[in-house]
Amino acid sequence: MPLYEGRHNATNKIQISPEAKNSIVMGEKNCIRRIADDILEAKGAVALDGWYGVDFAGILAELKELCTEVEFIPVQSVYLPMEKIREYKKEYITEDPSFGYCNMDGRIVDLTDPEKMKDLKSRLGKGVVVYGYGAAIPELYDFYARTYYFDMTRQPLLWSMWDGKLIPFALDQPDPQYDWKEYYYCDYYLLHFQKHFIIEKMDYYVEAVKKEELKILPKAAYDEVIRTMLKYPVKEVEIYQPGPWGAYRYKDFWDVPGLECNAWNELAGPELSILIDVDREEQLNLPFVNLMQYPDKLLGRYLSETYPHLFPLDAWLDDGYFPDKQPAERISMPIHTHPSTDYVKTNFNEPIGRYETYYIAEAYEGANTWMGFYNDADLEEWEAKCRKSNNHEVIGDWKDYVCNWESNVGDLYLIPPGTDHGHGGNQMVLELDTCPSIAGTEYSFFSYDFARNSWDDKTKTMTGKPLNMQLDHSFRVSKFRREDYVDKKLRAKPSVIKWTKEYYIDRYSSVPEMPFEIERIHYQHKGEYDTEGKYCHIITLTVGKTARIYSKNNPEYGTQINLYQAAVIPADFGEYVIESEGDGQHTATLVRWKKG
Predict the structure, then answer these.
(1) What whole-number distance in Å separates Cα of residue 333 and Cα of residue 320?
(2) Residue 207 CA to chain centroid, in angstroms?
(3) 3-state secondary structure of 167
(4) At what angle do helices 56-66 and 28-41 cross, to 10 degrees?
(5) pTM recorded for the entire structure
(6) Which of 97, 193, 252, 363 has its CA 20 to 30 A from that of 26?
(7) How large is the average pLDDT for residues 489-502?
């Protein structure tokens, strides 16, 4: 699953106090020297904790040269044998080939040996450093004089995992048996809850995305950065992914080295990172979810209390432009559906289902969307054909079953769980969806992908293996919605909810099961809106060239976005202005929760 990052106009420029700004240590040598000095000066043991993917081996090699009399103890020395850890994880990895069961109640201590823990505690004192994932778990925290937390953004970690280079719990080298489900359904949660514990108690936060670009933030400076970021609209570092329906409109907007086709790019969501300019020589690069340290400010009280630890919204841009006419089997997404909240809670231990919308941002000749089934389609026959094919045999008459809808700019398709659908190509789709998972896992159940080859990113050709289907899940959750239902209920229509001489806001119709609203701000030069202190907005410029978004009461708190770029506006932001230069109409499309 190749991913590419795009940092175009992604920097968030903020102002923090001179004390906080000047306390940040930047650069590998400076950071190693500072940590070494702290180890030598500390009156007790020191913990170097962190997330998967941190280059602890490289960092420790340099620290040991400066701390020759210090004992460095790897925390993996207290872990259980690997066979017991693998047994522990079976419950979460499950037999399902595509999904697992989230380890919401587990903690890192579950993987440790009580006797080894007791022995380690007896050894902790001045001149001792414990390092690695879980070095400062609650059961050890009180034994340290200093704690450091080394953090990693998600995309470099995934690249390391896919390349077979990730070192998991209890090991000091990569595990060739390590599976992505171990990370997404077990290890992620162990790491997440440890980070949630230590981020409030640490002495120092270390940005450790790249060893050669280490940055140390004292706890007070780190907290000030996070609190200050929540006073601004937040831009994220986008990710791009090629795929079997990958298209080429992206080339007109972004230069992404190595990306040869684009199925979609994520504009906003919990798995992305943020770049922060604090007026130092280098920018900070942190996981976006670090802002969840203050969930009420980011999401509002209702969401933070209803879905603890979860940032429940995503924004994606699905490419669909082809310079030459292509068959539907090349330009369409797989026919697929998504699960409800009840289904993911029962089967995967996730907090909320996958609820989607397709907003048509651009429409070209032949723009279309697949959704629902024709009124006269034999759906038992359709299911039988999908199961027989299993995406290995072509279903020649598939178009006789799946309903096709002509699209135009501004159309909105509501996609509640159980709705069979797929982007049909020849259009640019802004997807505004729920994110069901704290780990960012996306639940799509494929039923048919035209028995085509997928994308091989090494050869940059469509010669990869056909995608795997999730037929049992797909047909279990499908509502088998018919053409008439889709036309009446799921082809949303906008209604004006506020009109002024400068701008107006409209809101699309919805159905009760959809948990969020889709709204638009239309303006010539300037529009206004309000988070009301309880609604987080993800806003995307869908018509225009650029827009500046800033607080109405404190205009210095603002950012600038480009066409098809999103910003997350914290619930605590309040009244804001969106403003663009130049003549002509501008439109910003946003998603927000219905309840607040």
Answers:
(1) 10
(2) 19
(3) coil
(4) 60
(5) 0.97
(6) 193
(7) 99
pLDDT at 582: 84
3-class secondary-structure state, position 58 = helix
Q: Which residues contact 439 (CB under 8 A, 6 or more apart)?
A: 102, 183, 184, 185, 188, 189, 192
User: Can you tell me the distance from the alpha carbon of 538 to that of 520, in angstroms, rounded to the nearest whole number?
Assistant: 11
Q: Is the pLDDT of residue 267 over 90?
A: yes
Considering the segment(s) 28-213 as one domain, its CATH architecture is 3-Layer(aba) Sandwich (3.40)
Residue 290: count of CB within 10 angstroms of its CB: 19
- 8 A C-beta contact, residue 108 and residue 117: no
Tokens coding 239: 């990710």
Give me the half-sphere count of Cα atoms (radius 13 Å) on the Cβ side of residue 174.
12
| DSSP conformational letter for 460 | T
459: tokens are 């050869």
- The pLDDT of residue 2 is 86
Q: What are phi and psi of 195, to 5 degrees?
A: -65, -40
443 pLDDT more than 80: yes
Does residue 1 have a pLDDT over 80?
Answer: no
Q: CA dihedral defined by 469, 474, 476, 481, rounded to 10 degrees?
A: -150
Nearest to 373 by CA among 480, 529, 276: 480
- SS3 letters for 342-394? HHHHHHHCCCCCCCEEEEEEEECCCCEEEEEECCCCCHHHHHHHHHHHCCCCC
HEC string of 91-160 equals HHHCCCCCCCCCCCCCCHHHHECHHHHHHHHHHCCCCEEEECCCCCCHHHHCCEEEEEEEECCHHHHHHH
Domain definitions of the chain by residue range: 28-213, 494-593
How far apart are alpha carbons 489 and 413 in whole angstroms? 9
- The Cα 371–Cα 411 span in angstroms is 13
> What angle (nearest 5°) sits at the alpha carbon of residue 90, between those of residues 84 and 91?
120
Q: Which residues pair with 314 in a beta bridge?
A: 433
Helix (H, G, I), strand (E, B) or coil at 24: coil
